[in-house]
Amino acid sequence: MPYSADHKAKTRIRVINAATALFKKEGFENITIDQVMAAAGLTRGGFYAHFKNKEDLFVACVENGMSLLSSPILAELRKAERGGNDWITSFAELYLSRIHIENPDMGCALPTLSTEVARSGDKARLAFSKLINQATEKLAWKLAKEDDIPGIDRHINVDGDQKTRNVPSEYERDSTAMLAMMVGAVVLSRAVDDDTADRILKSTRDSILDGREKGSGNTNIPGIKKTG
Questions:
Q1: CA separation, residue 60 to residues 17, 51, 100, 202, 203 (Å)
Q2: Which pLDDT does position 31 carry in this prediction?
Q3: What does R_g of the chain's alpha carbons equal in angstroms?
């Protein structure tokens, strides 16, 4: 008896969810189809009923709303925001920390995936570009919101799929620069000895936070400034 369309859709989501968790933890190139299917509790033979190859699966993960930040990181950011703390400062301190460096499965997917997707096909690169664009849009919204820019949406879930509105273009430029700084710092810190990693993290963190205190600071990121 053939499976229903509903069963097939649920199985596809099951595979996507398993793959998303593995890609974030281990990277794109390091994960095999067998590992994905085992994590989903399925056999390899069922994979090709849903996806052409691993690149096709990665694209599906992105289109399904692949989360860049893990639940522990999001929980800490929400806690900081509820406490009235500067969200961007809290984000930089969490992102540029030893905990993040030493626990990639609990952190952001961008440093893990970036170098590997760069060696993949066009579909994976386009999907990854979508992730980057979504991340910079949400970060730009946060920067503008904390600067009390008029017309900014009252609230947007940074891990959701809502479209940001009324964000000045300079904030998108600033958020792109800030994200590149932080992701690059994490990639480098994971590849060097502890002392060098600590220096990279501290220098990047101080540069971002100093810029928020001073206005434009030495970071050339005008939107990253402390208000109030």
A1: 10, 9, 26, 36, 37
A2: 92
A3: 19
In this structure, what is the dihedral angle of CA atoms 12, 22, 42, 33, given to the nearest 10 degrees? Answer: 90
* Residues near 99 by beta carbon (within 8 Å), at least 6 away in sequence: 106
pTM for the model: 0.74
What is the three-class DSSP state of 10?
helix
Query: What's the confidence (pLDDT) of residue 157?
Result: 52
Q: What is the DSSP letter of 105?
A: G
CA 63 to chain centre: 14
Three-state secondary-structure class, residue 64: coil
- Identify the DSSP state of 121: -
Locus of tokens 């859709």: 9
In angstroms, the CA 155 to CA 158 distance is 9
Residue matched to tokens 């579909």: 123
**pLDDT digit string (tens) for 67-87?**
777 677 777 778 877 776 678
CB atoms within 10 A of CB 63: 11
Question: Tokens 């190859």, residue?
Answer: 53
Q: How far, rounded to the nearest angstrom, does the alpha carbon of residue 94 sit from its chain's CA centroid?
A: 13
Least confident of 109-113, 172-176, 222-226: 222-226
- Domains, the chain, with CATH or none: 5-63 (1.10.10.60), 71-214 (1.10.357.10)
